[in-house]
Amino acid sequence: VQNDPSSQGTPLSVDVLTEKLIQLRSAVRALGSVCLGYSGGVDSAFLAAIALQVLGPEAMLAVTGRSAAVPEAQLESARACARQFGIPHLEIATDELADADYAANPANRCYFCKNELWRVLQEVAARHGLAHVIDGSNADDAHDYRPGLIATRKWAVRSPLLEAGLTKAEIRHASQALGLPTWDQPASPCLASRLPYGLAVTTERLRQVELGEAALRALGFREFRVRHHGDAARLEVAPDELGRAARSHREIVIALRESGFGRVLLDVEGYRRGALNEGLKLVSLEHTR
Amino acid sequence: MSDARLPRVCRLLEENGIAPVVGVAGHAQDVLAVRASVSELERVRGLAPDLRAAGFRYVTIELEMGDVS
Question: With the CA atoms of A96, A97, A102 and A103 taken in that order, what torsion angle do they form, in degrees rounded to the nearest 10?
Answer without folding.
Answer: 180
